[in-house]
Amino acid sequence: MSKVEEPAARRPIAARSSSWAIGLSKYLVRTGVTANGISVLSVFFAAAGGALTGFGNQHPVAWIAAAACVQMRLVCNLLDGMVAIEGGKKTPNGPLYNEFPDRIADSLLLVPVGYATGLPWLGWLCALLAALTAYIRVFGGSLGLPQDFSGIMAKQRRMAALTVGLVAQTIETVVFGTVWSLGVTLAAITAGSLVTCITRTISLTGSLEGRQ
Q1: GO molecular function: any one (predicted)?
Q2: CATH of span 15-209
Q3: 79-125 pLDDT tens trace
Q4: Residue 161 and residue 117 in contact, taking contact as beta carbons nearer than 8 Å
Q5: pTM of the model
């Protein structure tokens, strides 16, 4: 794939320049896989991860498998953009597939954590704040500003925190049989998402005022 100009609304991801991502995206382009299809696949990985988290009977294997699903969701999020942009497979409805599956995937992964830890309200709140971080970013873009992907709990960091929490929970389940690791992780993601909403809103306000 030739080097292309980065769209202003594209999330900066370091792994995009890695050899494995470049090689895999080139392979997917050759096989005819669509970027939109990869975006939809991310939702299936999220659904599997959420099911393992919420309905896996708190088994260590379920926790670690859920962590793998979280990472596969992120791999899909990486590859769909590479196939669309670098692979030249952009479609008119690509922006829709780029955003909507992400919002669904976040909820499918975060809400079950609340039920698994006995804090369903916190899982729903976490999912709501995660969606709100994206809303603020996209709203800024709708006003003609560069989309703001910053924040202590942007998507990549939310999923990294969830992965670490699930791995830690695997160990805790084997040793103690409790769910503190996952509960603390959910609380941290929720608090971090709230801070991210605030900082993005402040940045958006400053950018709008700077237009005057």
Answers
A1: transferase activity
A2: 1.20.120.1760
A3: 998 998 887 888 888 888 989 999 999 999 999 999 999 999 999 99
A4: no
A5: 0.90
